[in-house]
Design brief:
The structure holds two protein chains of two kinds. Chain A is an alpha/beta fold. Chain A folds into two domains: 209 residues, Rossmann fold; 69 residues, Alpha-Beta Plaits (2-Layer Sandwich), CATH 3.30.70.100. Chain A contains eleven helices and 13 strands. In chain A, strand 8 and strand 9 form a beta hairpin. Chain B starts with 7 loop residues before the first helix and ends with a helix. In chain B, 39% of the residues are buried. Chain B is elongated, with a radius of gyration of 27 Å. Chain B is mainly alpha-helical. Helix content of chain B is 64%, strand content 5%. Chain B has a four-stranded mixed beta sheet with strand order 2-1-3-4. The chains are: A alpha/beta, B mainly alpha. At the A-B interface, helix 2 and helix 3 of A face helix 1 and helix 7 of B.
């Protein structure tokens, strides 16, 4: 397939003085799962809503499935599936009634039974939406997005607020959609979600893309595979250049009293770090190591954690 | 037409109907409330022949004889009480008139109260007759109670109009603002759903319930109080449908931008309460000053009530109500067009 699923250039959106989207370029390929990763308020939702034709950008160009919103709105709406943040489906309707309602808007698509099977809600088909759990509601929202058998699926923080089991269940639904050749654009602030689902990830902060690549590439860009984090009970942390000089340390970042070292060889860094700290009379209150993740990529780029929890 | 399964208009309308029938409170307000209101008002104002006039006679010389002669008239119920008590009863409406015996006889009453005026006439008549007045002209009373001229007859069409306005505006206003609040409107906007079908589904669902809603009140009036239906049922149906469409349009307009249920409730009341008062629901709008009449006649509920009364009570043909109907259509069309223009989907 020649054309890209989504192409946008120089996308800009302002709300008064606030620039929510400050010149974003995106190329989402057909059949890929593309993730936009970033903290709340980074401009992810605004971007995805512009791409879905729900908001007018103040500047820039958007092409979806080779079509534009100005000229092909009707066709585009037939071919894309949508799950929005914070949509509350009608509580007094039954599950199957909601799916049938959404099915009726489209010229072609899947049957109600098929879609309910896809999101594993067959048993709840006659339950009122108001009686569903958070995870079930979210699966129903995705069912409504899948009912038109879309070429392109937009998911805006599909698993926010869900328990780990519901989250994994929903990931399974998205992976199944991809196996059938569908393209997905999703936003998330969960690293594991992006690492597990996405072929490529754009890291977004303050309305701009600050990094782009596959999760593996982004993590590799740290230059090291491990992260050592420590905090001190007393004494002052050594300066950045001293820490960076330790064997195997590639990068130093600090946040709220915790120091993060991106390292290639944990077994060399730890003894050296301990010696350094005891020489300086500092004692540890915390020391952990883990494999580098997208969270560390964000931290390295911005000096902040993605989720302020 | 598609199969109902796949017709968006059918599914959207089913959605509206389900929201309504699965909400017991809504059913109460639409069906039971107007009937209960008609029952209460019908009983309160039921015609019971000539009213008994209650008067207080101030205690003092001659009071006993005066009270006796007043009580001799079947329509008067006179009680002797001291002056302070008499005034207190007048003030609180327990008597319509206070009589002070003597020469001249003193009658105290409040001219703004209709029953006081009546009481004065009855008392003056009784006093003059017992003093030996000779009537010059001979009069014979024939008492009739004409269905169609009683208060309950006036009330039933007014209640139907009120109900059409209320359910139309609340039903549509709440439904839309709730969907907007739940970000559902935005979700629908992301689908290829036709906006006009969405709006139309609200109107269609109104039409389906309208028959029951209006029929219930009409039938209740007929069976319980013998309120006549003199015009054709078809003419009434036509007016009711037009009225319902009009208020759907107005409801849509009122709900077109409000973000919260509280906000839309305030707006609804702002629009509806003046019509409750001015549009001749509970009493004729001719009571208001002449200067206000042109404005009152422009209100959609006034037009609806006028048309309903003309057909139900006076039995006129539909064509004779062309004026009010044209006004209703204008209100409805204008509101619908403006609502579509300014409607906020997210």
């Amino acid at each position: 397939m020649p054309e890209a699923a989504i192409k946008c250039r120089e996308l800009v959106k302002r709300y008064g003085d606030l620039t929510a989207v400050a010149g974003i370029d995106l190329d989402v390929r057909r059949g890929e799962c593309f993730g936009m990763l970033g903290p709340n308020g980074a401009g992810k939702t605004t971007t995805i809503e512009i791409l879905q034709g729900l908001r007018e950008p103040d500047g820039g160009e958007v092409e979806v499935l080779g079509l534009t919103w100005d000229r092909h709105e009707g066709e585009l709406r037939q071919r894309m599936g949508t799950q929005l943040q914070e949509t509350k489906l009608p509580e007094k309707l039954k599950v199957e009634e909601v799916v049938r309602l959404f099915r009726s808007f489209y010229r072609r698509g899947r049957s109600v039974d098929e879609v309910l099977a896809l999101v594993a809600l067959e048993e709840k088909r006659t339950a009122w939406v108001g009686k569903l759990s958070g995870g079930q509601r979210q699966r129903l929202a995705v069912a409504c997005a899948l009912v038109c058998d879309p070429d392109l699926l937009f998911l805006d923080e599909p698993t926010t607020g869900l328990d780990p089991q519901s989250r994994r269940q929903l990931w399974g639904v998205i992976e199944e959609f991809r196996r059938r050749g569908g393209t997905v654009l999703l936003t998330t602030h969960y690293m594991e979600e992006a690492e597990r689902l996405c072929d490529r990830v754009a890291v977004v902060d303050h309305g701009e893309i600050i990094a782009l690549g596959s999760p593996r590439e982004l993590i590799a860009s740290l230059g090291a595979e491990h992260v050592v984090e420590f905090a001190l009970e007393q004494g002052e942390a050594p300066p950045d250049d001293v820490l960076a000089a330790l064997p195997g340390v590639e990068h130093v970042a600090r946040e709220n009293g915790t120091t993060h070292l991106t390292v290639s060889r944990v077994h060399q860094v730890i003894p050296a770090l301990m010696r350094l700290l005891s020489e300086r009379g500092a004692s540890l209150s915390e020391l952990t190591t883990h494999h580098a993740s997208l969270e560390d990529v964000f931290l390295n780029l911005t000096g902040r954690h993605m989720r302020d929890e | 037409m598609n199969r109902p399964e796949t017709s968006a208009l059918v599914q959207l309308t089913l959605w509206r109907l389900r929201e309504f029938t699965r909400e017991p409170e809504a059913l109460f307000w639409v069906f039971a409330f107007p009937i209960l209101l008609a029952l209460a008002l019908g009983i309160a104002f039921k015609g019971r022949g000539p009213e008994v006039v209650r008067v207080a006679v101030e205690a003092g010389p001659g009071a006993e004889a005066l009270a006796q002669s007043l009580n001799a008239d079947g329509r008067i119920e006179a009680a002797i009480v001291d002056s302070a008590e008499a005034h207190s009863r007048l003030r609180t409406g327990r008597v319509a008139l206070v009589v002070g015996a003597g020469d001249p006889l003193v009658l105290r009453f409040d001219t703004t109260r209709v029953e006081s005026d009546i009481a004065r006439l009855v008392v003056v008549n009784a006093v003059q007759e017992s003093a030996g007045r000779r009537d010059v002209a001979v009069i014979r009373d024939v008492r009739v109670t004409e269905p169609g001229a009683r208060y309950i007859d006036f009330l039933i069409p007014g209640l139907i109009g009120l109900n059409i306005m209320g359910t139309g505006m609340w039903g549509i206003g709440f439904g839309i603002v709730k969907a907007r609040n739940d970000r559902l409107l935005k979700r629908l906007l992301a689908s290829p759903m036709r906006k006009s079908e969405f709006m139309l589904s609200f109107m269609l669902s109104r039409l389906i319930f309208l028959g029951f809603e209006v029929g219930a009140v009409l039938l209740f009036g007929l069976l319980m109080f013998g309120v006549p239906i003199r015009g054709s049922i078809l003419a009434i149906a036509a007016i009711v449908v037009i009225g319902a469409m009009t208020f759907s349009g107005v409801g849509l307009l009122v709900a077109s931008r409000a973000r919260t249920i509280e906000g839309v409730s305030g707006l609804m009341n702002f629009v509806m309460v003046p019509m409750w008062i001015f549009s001749g629901v509970f009493f004729a709008y001719s009571h208001f000053p002449d200067g206000m009449q042109p404005v009152i006649r422009l209100l959609p509920l006034t037009a609806l009530n006028d048309a309903l009364r003309a057909v139900q009570l006076d039995g006129v043909a539909l064509a004779a109500t062309a004026g009010p109907i044209a006004l209703l259509v204008a209100w409805g069309a204008l509101s619908f067009v403006v609502a579509l223009k300014v409607f906020r989907w997210q």
